[in-house]
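anyone seen this seq b4? input:
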Amino acid sequence: MELNDPILGPWIDLDLLARLGAAAFLGLVLGLDREWQGHAAGLRTHGLICFASAAMTIATIALYYQIGGPRMDPLRLFEATGAFVGIIGAGLIVFSRGEVKNLTTAAHLWLTAVVGIACGAALWPLVGIAAVISVVMLTLLGFAEKKLFPHTEGETDGEA
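predicted toks r here
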């Protein structure tokens, strides 16, 4: 069996630490609102998904270059991440008494995975923009929604 060359030298470098550290930190930040709102997927779930997506992206990029590029399809990373987050999201979404619950949380987990992939690929402008817009959409729009639509309980997708 032929394996890729191991990376033993200075195995923790600043670039790797920045990619994984940013993903872990941003995943926790993205999960804050869900935690404060008392939803099923909070800090730890968002942090783990973002961190795992970054680690998987780094491994995919490294293998792509170590194996020789064209013989490997790095886009399968998105397929695997989408399938996994879809399974978690499907488990969160509940239809009860004519209302759909946890839809926003499931969608936010998907965005968290994308931010993790962007961290792993060191796409820093995408990371920053996606994280800021996500927090604004989830937190600030959540407050605005409660003020503008006080007759609904929680978000428009039924989350309380």
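The two ends are 53 Å apart (CA to CA). The chain has a mean pLDDT of 80. kinda curious what u guys think
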